[in-house]
Write a structure and sequence with these properties.
The termini are far apart. The chain is built from 5 helices and 4 strands; from the N terminus they run αβαβαβαβα. It is α/β, with parallel strands linked by helices. Bound molecules: NADP nicotinamide-adenine-dinucleotide phosphate (NAP). Keywords: Membrane, Oxidoreductase, Transmembrane, Transmembrane helix.
């Protein structure tokens, strides 16, 4: 509260005192600014230390990989990286991947990029996909269970499961399970099920 003393006769007398009153506020703003900068710097260094970019140039000629959710996002970028290193890729996604596939072949000059339909929200689709892979591939070196959804339109899938759980976990679990125990060697850096 500002108490105007009777000694102050005009605005010129009051003004310097008002400015003095603002000092604690500006000190508060400066402190807050400093704290925010420190927090942002800490976040930046935390992210730098935890987020990594693959810069491997290992040759993958002769290897076969499946990438789920390969039509867009991280899956697409993963296929691009693996294909540029000579890997044979089977892109698996629920949507039409023809354009993504042709783009990747064009960018990487690797013709061994194939697209196969896989709907992880359907157990039947997962089974059909796995059985086609087992028929068509002699071996499988890399399985990247990348596809995922955050929200779903319906509460339940046709299998009566929660859609997010089925796409992100159950579908991938079944796929991995069906591909194990054959001549396939299944490995994944991020989703280790074994
Ligand atoms: N981006 C991030 O910051 C972040 C952070 C943590 C974890 N992740 C995880 O990383 C993975 C990829 O993330 P992202 O950002 O690349 O996601 P995204 O851009 O949404 O890509 C997900 C891919 O999964 C496909 N997909 C969706 N439902 C499917 C289904 N039923 N069957 C088969 N494929 C299906 C999508 O197909 P269409 O879109 O073509 O329909 C899309 O190609 C996800 O598992 C996500 O949870 C991402």
């Amino acid at each position: 509260m500002i108490v105007v003393s009777p000694h102050f006769q005009n605005l010129g007398d009051i003004l310097p005192h008002l400015i003095q009153f603002q000092c604690p506020d500006s000190l508060f703003s400066t402190t807050m600014f400093f704290i925010i900068c420190v927090v942002l710097l800490l976040c930046y260094f935390y992210m730098r230390s935890t987020v990594t970019v693959t810069r491997s140039s290992s040759c993958l000629v002769g290897k076969t990989a499946i990438v789920t959710g390969a039509n867009s996002g991280i899956g697409y970028q993963t296929v691009l990286n693996l294909a540029s290193r000579g890997c044979k890729i089977i892109m698996a996604d629920v949507t039409d991947m023809e354009k993504s596939k042709l783009d990747i072949i064009k960018f990487t000059n690797n013709p061994n990029v194939f697209a196969k339909h896989l709907d992880l929200s359907s157990l039947k689709s997962v089974r059909d996909f796995a059985s086609e892979i087992l028929k068509s591939e002699d071996k499988l070196d890399i399985l990247i269970n990348n596809a995922g959804v955050l929200v779903a339109k319906n509460n339940r899938t046709g299998d009566g499961l929660h859609p997010v759980m089925q796409v992100n976990y159950f579908g991938h679990f079944l796929l991995t399970h069906l591909l194990i125990g054959t001549n396939s060697l299944v490995s994944s850096q991020f989703h280790v099920w074994l």
